[in-house]
Structures are given as structure tokens and as C-alpha cells.
Amino acid sequence: MENNNDKIICSELFQKHRKVEVVLYPAVLAWKEIEKSSKRSSGTCESEHRQTVEVCEIVAVHKTEDEVDAQARSHTKRINQPSQQYPYAFTVSYVRKTRQHLWRCADVTFHCADQQICEQWIQVTNEQLSILTNRPKNLLVYINPYGGKRRGERIYEQKVAPVFRRAGILTDVIVTERANHARDHLKTEANLDDYDGVVCVGGDGMFSEILHGLVTRIQTDHGVDQNQPDAELVPCSLRIGIIPAGSTDCICFATQGTNDPVTSALHIVVGDSQPMDVCSVHHNGVFLKYSVSLLGYGFYGDVLADSERNRWLGPARYDLSGFKTFLSHNHYGGTVSFLPADDNVGHPRDKLQCRSGCRICQHKPSSKDEHDEASEEKEKPADDSDRGWSVIHGKFIAINSASMSCACPRSPKGLSPSAHLADGTTDLILVRKCSRLDFFKHLLRHTNNNDQFDHWFVEVHRVRKFRFQPWHHNFVPLEDASERPLSPDLSPISSLQETCDDCTAESSWNCDGEILHHTAIQVSVQCQLIRLFARGIEEQQDAEVAV
Ligand SMILES: CCCCCCCCCCCCC/C=C/[C@@H](O)[C@H](COP(=O)(O)O)NC(C)=O
Ligand SMILES: Nc1ncnc2c1ncn2[C@@H]1O[C@H](COP(=O)(O)OP(=O)(O)O)[C@@H](O)[C@H]1O
Ligand SMILES: [Ca+2]
């Protein structure tokens, strides 16, 4: 055994029926077969095939206590078996990256002749793992047993708990008994100091509960008033892990590229960290909700409202309600005002997708910039003609604010394919009144590679704040001709007033899968307020790194 230079430990061991040289470097475990060469009298030569695992992707190392080894140690018959000569063994569990962002926990077992060497390997590997301080040791787990196909508990017990056990993570598990159980427990009861993170087993609605519980708790603990739209919110130190067990699971899909419970568990174990923007939603200075994925008025609000009546259908309820809402083809009048983002965060149509280590998300605006902007705003009269704000009056089939791509299995590139997870902005998508066929074409483009923003009736803006005011019977603003799109549907101002009956209907807001009870809202993006146990979507060529 060597112990020089950057090698921490190096031994000749046995793996299955092959003799291998195993080396632990400071950041990498590597092994390669040493072949017995019949042609060379001197003995061994190295095979080309070296396998490597990064230490930060090792789940755990354990002494191997299986039947084969027990047999081997008991000095029975099969004297020529390698396990007889190498009766001590340890197993390294590690992350194996397969296709399409799917991770699996793989095991490799190394046999040794000497008990001390075996124990030394376990010890030094564990020492290397203990340097990785970003790994959670204690987690608080909430399971929604009624999310998605009602498989939350089974998914956790069968797929996730074994991975946590293997990694030596301690958990407190709460299976929720009612809606808002998890939120209320986090808000008032949970002793947050006991945990390094919170795990949500459920869908986007369940995540929303955890988000509200955690963010509200932190603000209360720090004396921050959430009702102040300009309050500087305190970021959460606890990270949130998402085990997908819901219907859409877009927050999980958009932050790790797949909806797979084992993959999520492994991102938690290795201690990944992905900052994420949170939108705060207010109504006349009163706090309503937070949102991290979709805030949708019109189409997605109506789909959600209708789908709640068919919850028994499970995830299929969205297909039914989507179809019904599409046929009803409603549109809604309203005024949207927004504060555009700075140019340095790109544009929703720039095709620069947010990926692991995204450069745009690393440019976090300093709190000083935000403060300057906030105080500048206060000095101005609070109406929509404020400098920097744009105002659009119109009849909309959908108003969607996507703070992240909102990619999900139904729409693998999402509502706004170039939206960023942590840039402090949201992509505001306005879909104007158009024909059913046009709207169908727009929807269809969410499922293929065509640009869903390339329609005369769709516009998209990257914004830091926006407001929405639905039109009322006694308040239908005169349209500013300069704000209109170049549309065949343009109507003169007089006819807008005559036809206002068909545009004063109100929809509701879909806020990460929860209905909001107010339609007039003010939205402000809180840059990187929370962190997930995720790393964003990795570029595809990163796959197959390990064995
Ligand atoms: C012609 C067929 C066209 C299909 C177009 C599909 C576009 C799909 C875009 C989906 C974007 C979903 C954004 C996520 C919303 C979730 O927060 C919410 C709640 O998810 P949950 O039930 O809690 O997992 N789900 C829905 C459908 O509103
Ligand atoms: N024990 C429970 N009983 C009923 N509803 C619950 C329970 N726990 C959580 N919920 C609620 O269930 C709703 C849907 O949960 P979610 O996990 O997002 O599933 P889905 O993706 O199918 O909508 C959420 O609004 C959440 O507040
Ligand atoms: Ca964003």
C-alpha cells in the first residue's frame, strides 16, 4: 500500500472476480483492473478501463457483512475462491448518473485480505466525507398521503428512506392529516434548530405549504412584516428537498430535470444547493401568498378552479379541465403594469436556458441596488405612470408569470423555456384574445420545439414587479392606442366601451397550484429567498461520468 503525494490511500483489492488497484485521491475514488498476464513472467499489467467516482458523489462507505463473506471467513471448502483469500470487504455506495438526469445509487464492493486495511479504507473514506459540510444530517420530512396518485407514503418508505438510512441521515417524519398541517407545524411548532433541511413529499401544492410555513416562520422570528410589499425578507437558511409525489411536480422537474424520487433523495444526500426566487403576492398592501413557479390568471386559473372539483381523478383531472377550459375559450379584461428587469438578466426569447451554475443567476443584485430602487420609487406618486413602469390594457385569454421555466413532463421545456431560477425576475406572458385555433397552436407549441411566443397575440416581458387590475363594469379604461399589439382583432376605443360586457368577467389566479381569493394583485420578485437541495439542470454531456 502506498501513501504518497496526492494519493490518500492505495491498495490492491478484489472486486468480484477481478484484482483491482483502488486509489482514493482527495476528491476522487478510482479503481482499475490489474490483469494477470500469461505472456509476461513478471506478473501484472494494468487494464485501460479506469473507473472513477467523485468523493462528493459518494453516498456512504460500509463494512460489508453479507452471506458470501461470512461463508468465506468460516474456513470452509472452496479454498481457491478469491473471497477466501480476501475475506474482509467494504462497500462504497455512490451516485451513478444515467440518462436524462436520472440518478441511481450504485454499490461497489472491494474485498481485502487484511482486516486492518479494510477498516482503514472505511475510516479514511469517511474522513473525506466528513469534510463535506454541506451534507444534511438531520431532516424534517412532511408527507402528503393524498397528493398525486396517493402514493406519497409508499414512495417515501420504499425509495427514499433506504437512501437516507444508507447515508446515515436522521429523519423526523410527519404524515400530514389535513391540508395546511405541514404549513402550520412549520410556522409555529417545529424546532428548526434541530434540522439542516426540510423534505416535502408531494406535489407543487404541498411544496407551497412548506414554502409558506418556512418563509413566514423566518420572517416572524426576525420581526419582518410580510404585509409590507417593500419589506426586505430574510432568506431561509434551511434548504428544501422535493420528493415528487404530486400531479404536476414542475418545481422538482424544473430544478433537477426529472421527476424521480431516488434522484431527489440523492441530491439531498450529497447536499446540493440551488437558490431560488420567490414572488410575494399582495392585495392592497395585505400579504396573500408566495409563488415560485406559475402565477396564472385566465386559462391556468380556470383550469385549476375546475380541476379542484375532480380531484378524485388524480393527475388526469388537469387533462379534463384543460380540455373543458380550452373549449369555453374565455377571455378577461384587465390592466397589467410592470417594472421591466435590467438588460443584464437577458430576455425570455434569448434561448439562454438556466442550467447548473447559471451565469445570469450568479449576478445577484446587491441589497443596496434594491434599496436604492425601492426608495426612489417611494418618492414618486404611486400610479401606473411611474417612471420605468409600463402599462398594458387588454383582453387576455391568459396572463402567466413564470418565475422559473415551469418545465414538467407535460411540457418538457415549460411555459417560459429561458426563465431563470434565481435571477430576481419573472417572465410575464400575456396571451391576448384570439381565435380558438390560434390559442390551440400556442398551447401545442409548449409540447414541441416551436417558439410559443412567436404569435401576434402573445408578448413576453422579463420583469421584477408587476400589478394586475381586472376591469369592472364601471371601470373600463380607454385603451392607449400605442399599447396595442399589431392584431387583426384591434377595435376602436368606442367599440371597446360598447363591448365591455364581454370582458368584465373575472377569472382567478393559480398560484403554484393554489387558488388566490383576490384578482387585483401586486407581485414582487424576492431574489434567491430560498434554497433547494438541487443543482439546477445539468448539461447532458455531464451524464455517464461515473461507472
Ligand atoms: C394541446 C395540448 C397542449 C398542452 C399544453 C400544456 C402546457 C403545460 C404547461 C404546464 C405548466 C404547469 C405549471 C405548473 C403548475 C402547477 O403549480 C399546478 C399545480 O400542480 P400540482 O397539482 O400541485 O402538482 N399545476 C397546474 C396544472 O396548474
Ligand atoms: N393530509 C392531507 N389531507 C388533505 N389535503 C392535504 C393533506 N396534506 C396536504 N394536503 C393538501 O393537498 C393539496 C395537494 O397536494 P399536492 O401534494 O400538491 O398534490 P397534487 O399535485 O396532486 O395537487 C395541497 O393543497 C396540500 O395543502
Ligand atoms: Ca426567476
Automatic annotation (TrEMBL):
Q: What Pfam families does the annotation carry?
A: CERK_C, DAGK_cat, PH_CERK
Residues forming coiled coils: none
Record's GO cellular component, any one?
Answer: membrane
Q: Name one GO biological process term.
A: ceramide metabolic process
Q: Which domain of life is it from?
A: Eukaryota
Query: Bias regions of kind Basic and acidic residues — which residues?
Result: 366-387
- From the UniProt record, which GO molecular function terms apply? ceramide kinase activity
Under the heading InterPro entries, the entry gives: ATP-NAD_kinase_N, CERK_C, CERK_PH, Diacylglycerol_kinase_cat_dom, Lipid_Phosphate_FormReg, NAD/diacylglycerol_kinase_sf
Chain positions covered by the region annotation Disordered: 362-387
Q: Which residues form the DAGKc domain?
A: 134-285
- Protein name, per record: Ceramide kinase
What is the organism of origin for this protein?
Answer: Xiphophorus maculatus
